[in-house]
Write a structure and sequence with these properties.
Elements lengths: L8 H27 L1 H50 L4 E4 L5 E4 L1 H7 L9 H4 L15 E7 L2 E13 L11 E11 L1 H13 L1 E8 L2 H6 L3 H20 L4 E6 L2 E7 L3 H6 L4 H4 L13 E7 L4 H17 L4 E6 L2 E6 L11 H15 L3 E5 L6 H16 L3 E5 L8 H4 L13 E2 L1 H7 L4 E6 L11 H5 L2 E6 L13 E4 L6 H12 L7 H14 L9 H12 L4 H7 L4 H12 L2 E3 L3 E6 L7 H12 L7 E8 L2 E8 L5 H7 L3 E2 L3 E6 L4 H17 L4
Parallel strand pairs: 9-10, 12-13, 12-15, 13-14, 15-16, 16-17, 19-20
Antiparallel strand pairs: 1-2, 1-5, 3-4, 4-5, 6-8, 6-9, 7-8, 10-11, 18-19, 20-21, 21-23, 22-23
Helix pairs in contact: 1-2, 11-16, 12-16, 12-17, 16-17, 16-18, 17-18, 17-19, 20-21
Amino acid sequence: MKNDMKLKGRLQGFLNWPLYMGVLVMIMTVTAYAFSIKAGLICTVPAVVYCGISLWFYFVKRPMIMRELLLFAVDHAQIQKQLLADLDVPYALLDEQGKILWINNAFGEIIRKDKSWHKKIADLFPDAGIQPISPLEEEMIYDVSYENRYYRLHLKNIYMTEDTSPEEEDGFKVGLIAAYLFDETEKIQFKQEIENQKLVAGLIYLDNYDEALESIEEVRRSLLIALIDRKINKYINSMGGIVKKIEKDKYFVIIKNQYMENLKSARFSLLEDVKTVNIGNDMAVTLSIGLGMGGGSYIQNYEYARTAIDMALGRGGDQAVVKDGETINYYGGKSQPQEKNTRVKARVKAHALRELIETREQVFIMGHKIGDVDSLGAGIGIYRACNELNKKAHIVLDDITSSVRPILERFINNPDYPEDLFIKGDKAIEQADDNSLLVVVDVNRTNFTECSPLLDIIPTIVVLDHHRQTRESITNAVLSYVEPYASSTCEMVAEVLQYIGDNVRIRQAEADAMYAGIVIDTNNFMNKTGVRTFEAAAFLRRNGADVTRVRKMFRDSMQDYKAKAEAVRHAEVFEEAFAISICPGDNIESPTIIGAQAANELLDIVGIKASVVLTEFQDKIYLSARSIDEVNVQIIMEKLGGGGHMSVAGAQLTDCTMEQAVEKVKATIKQMLDEGEL
């Protein structure tokens, strides 16, 4: 065993230096003989003594030194092992595949040293997402949990080589991975407690306060208000929150962040609870809730709450909107928005629009992509307003679909209208400047507009729309008139025209275009029609709109009618209430229009609460969703990246096949049914 032990490097040289010195002494003795025999004899005696001592030290004492070095190394290794074993930091050694080879006591206390600890580190912490380990390029850090404790796991390479010199790169290497665990349970708990204690600012508005009060006797009105106040106060006080009534129909609330998950999981039960208040009122009271959180200050949270309540009201009310930083989530919105009987808002918006038009040199009017009759009719109505105020106006229109062609034919090459009434988007970009006005109609989403670059070029923007707002809404509009309860944008523009000037003269072709927009969007006055819808239609009829002429303009070709019939024929009933079908788009000029018409037709089937028709067009799959009153198709389409109304909505899907799109629609509906959103 002793003979097998070898020393290397500096230690071996240190132990061999007496032998090297012996050779030097012998050389010195021989040299002394060359000068004098007497001097050589004198040098021989100490040289022999030195060589004898060196040989005795090398052959006798060297094994003793080797044994002592070995004992020191063993003791040192034991000390190191004991130090690692008793180290307070949980420590483990892994092989290159991540299997645990050795653990210290602290690590063992965490995992209880059960029989299963000889497993891969990824199996020990399955939720951490630890990737295949061999070999690590750099230190890896993971957040892991084990038995309700939270840790930060560090993984780092260590190497054992046959070469003692760290400069040597050659030689056999054995790679191990060191794993350290740092307990962060208390840190995470403290952070969670701080997060829970953050304040959430909120605003609660009564959507139909005046209308609800008018529906009951005067002596009962105070009781209705008291019952509503009690519902709101009880709801917020149950979470330790504060309620402050700031106006007759507005409340400011503050709650802790820790209650937000419960509110979301219950989908803000106050929305439905307040509808149960009934003391003889014909109209149920509905609420809009806006909550702001995730801001850097209380003021910012309040601003988020104001944005959220504006979103809730802009989407028709009866819903809660939570704005958490840049993230916006919607809850509720199952009931139809109530139509306002007063036209005060329309008059105010009309006067504001008139002032903006009068202060600009030219006006650009823009609808949404693949424009329909409502967007074109509303654009023509705004053109009439600009013309009455002696301002140059252009309607931006790139795509001409079969649905709008009958209307366009009455304006193109018509001497009563300028040749540049309709212009392409690229030409509008060339002509637009800072002194222009951009009026966006029938759309409030930036990426759905006909020519979105105009939104960045023209600083003054007006939005008139009847679709519910989403997080992608146009945010830099100086005037926004969005009314989800309106049947169509043409209805809104018809009201605006009545207040924008005295005795505005609408020509027959313009009246037909706007009347057609109302007819198409209401499906011949069967969907989303109210008193103001018929009043707007009556106003247009008085200005020359002809029902028969409009109907003849929008008759289907035989090919389009067959495609629509084919979509109805192959419709699939999903979950016993949802009709889902595919509209063939081959050899059809505007398949998306036919798909929307097919979706309307499917609602006439008994038992169908909502319909979704998918149409492939220009490498995209367009979804047209319709319902009567029981299902909010808008929130379904929002899940798929679209939007619209409660009863009329749509979306666009890309990078998927038609079969995948159908499955995605089904999965979305199924999930929403399971979560109680529908």
